[in-house]
Design a protein that fits this description.
alpha/beta; 32 helices
Length: about 850
Amino acid sequence: MNLAQLRNAEIVHFSNAQLDSLLDEVGSSMQGLGGDVALDRLNQYGPNAIDVTRKMHPIFQFLALFLSPLPLLLIALSVISFVTGGVTGALVIAVMVFLSTGLAFLQEYKSNKAAEKLRQLVSIKVTVLREGVEQDISLSAVVPGDLIKLSAGDLIPADLRVLSANDLFVNQSSLTGEAMPVEKIVNGSNNVKSPFELPNICFMGSHVVSGLGVGVVVHTASQTMFGQLAKDIVSTKKTSSFDKGIKQFIWLMIKFMAVMVPAVFLINGFIKGDWMEALLFATAVAVGLTPEMLPMLVTINLAKGAIAMSRKRVIVKRLNSIQNLGAMDVLCTDKTGTLTQDEIILERYVDIAGNEDEGVLEYAYLNSHYQSGLKNLLDVAVLKHVDVHHKLHQAASFQKLDEIPFDFQRRRMSVIVKQNEELQILVCKGAVEEITSCCSNVRLNGKVQALTSELQAQQESLFADLSSDGFRVIAVAIREIPSDHANLNNHYTVADERDLTLVGYVAFLDPPKDSAKPAIAELRALGVKVKILTGDNELVTRKICSEVGISVEQVLVGSQIDGMSDEELVALAERVSVFARMSPQQKARVIQGLQSKGHVVGYLGDGINDGPGLKAADVSISVDTAVDIAKESADIILLEKNLLILKEGVLEGRKVFGNIMKYIKMSASSNFGNMFSMVGASALLPFLPMAPVQILLNNLLYDFSQTAVPTDNVDEEYLMEPRTWDVGHIARYIFCIGPISSIFDYATFGLLWFVMRVNSVGDATLFQTGWFVESLLSQTLIVHIIRTGKIPLIQSRSSFPLLLTTVAISLVGVILPFSHLANALQMSPLPAIYWYGLIPILLCYFALTQLVKSILVKRFGLM
């Protein structure tokens, strides 16, 4: 029997064991564990946590960064340079590799540590029974033998054997792929084909959809079925369009190298006859064309964005999601708590004639007080009427007999209470349509009468009036059951919710937030359309949305969506802003329809029913007060459910993307121009246009100047629209801007060759020094033009760190030919005539680049 079979047999054993023997085996009791025992077991078994990312020692993390295409390519070039005698060149390449990789590792290590601290702010709690007392503890503190209380919305924290269950339904899709929830009961079964079919075992990684239960922990952490699966399966991480674009760009540059480097090698070899020198030069050219700092700059940008967002009360769980947040052009969200204050007030309790009725409030209170599931905001508002509690329990002594929990299909829940020995009362509370469908009678003016069509019309009219005034309306109905007709063992099911008597409505008000309207207007100004996907009725939704500035010309409801084809839904989803009466699957379908039209969709959800939407969205957003399953599914977590905070996150995401694109545009266009210069110079000159060591030093200094790009300011105009990866725009930029630098390289060649008469092999060092300085100054300073769509330094200024690094590197380039390092770097001092010629060349280069850039921006927009 292999390990998997042993594991399955053990789970089956726990399923079939008698309760007493099971508790003995796991060392527990119906009172739960003692505190000292729990602490000992935590030390014995370790934290109840599974890290599927497999934490590596920092040394191995550092070494792993060398296994990507760019570092491997540079290491190979360094080896070639060393073997062919270019020790200095090999050393410079090695420094570049370790500088880029080391900085990337340092930033990633720091960002991971910071992210870990931020994640600790988002705690997942589990309700356990220890020494007979309920406690809320961290999920990681759960140990074998703990008794866990389960209710709707809870994550299953470990592998559990169910001890008691009341309509307990669990979603196991993360383990089995089966979307439909399965019912969990106390008794086991031998007629199963898989451990996941065991009816009295709940598995870690699943979550409670509805109902209540208690279970005893049999396995935690890596010993759970989920933990074993996590070890056995290599999960594939979802790749964003930005990640794909980065890879495409890297391979594009490698393809350029694959063509141009051999060409440079062959041209120099055949024309100059020194094949070893040609190989060293081609190697240096290859290094110059490699965007080796790109991984580091991407990491720094994302980490800087995450830290900036954390200061604005936005926690980033997955770094790559920052760019998707900036690219988002549609935000789908629920109404409650986002547009409204999430502070429900019970305003009215009326019969179907609209008259205030204390009896309606009393029955609503009994339902909310005696239910043991997840109490929502409506229940909390009802329970604030403590005067009703005193009145009810002074007049009679109620005893709870049973409960029929809430679920999202029925949208109602019932409690059964005993008022005296002769009478039991089923009190049902929920959505108006769902309650009235179960009613055959109505109580009006203290009398019970049949629910006629006239009374039906009357209650519907009242419901419509209350809803149109912005009230959230809940119906309350009862069924009186004589004790001699009561169910066996007082066990009730959904089938008992029949022949009810409608007693009236309780109406709640959740007023719009003061910040909702300006936040939606600001998101709209940023190019983000806000669409409301809510399970609430269309009348309330229409009222609230109209008050906060969302178009309600057309409202789609879930029943309409079910009758639509995908094509019809997609066409409407782009135009309609409000969707009401939506099920979780319908929300996900709308999101997928929007994505099919090229939209980047964000979804903000905090409830049990938001799981499918969070999973479908490009960027999933939740809040710290959300249920566990929503927080676990989210890429980004808001510490406050406020769209104004989300707006700040959108802006930060666009800043991150903008600064990454600056480096890509600068390095790509510069490298493309250098290719033309290298090929032409190799063919025309009797010597190398630049010494290999100079090419490497040039690249090293330029890359150092770009390390401050993540600190740069981003123009306000750039932030006003969603930004997505566009390879075509980058290619256009490369082909338009790149050749400009080559033009002025040739102008520099002309200055050196014809004006300064540096045209013999003996003058090669001076020629190479001249091009080194011009190349370094031009590509270092051009950043101030490429970084903005405006006029640089006048309409848009770079950050001080970027200005400082570019000026500093430029000064280093000017000083080097006159320094003690000149001989080692094969340089010689440049005469005054060179500087007189260089200044107009650089000015003309900057002016032409600004002109072409302005034409591109006017024709194709910002990128």
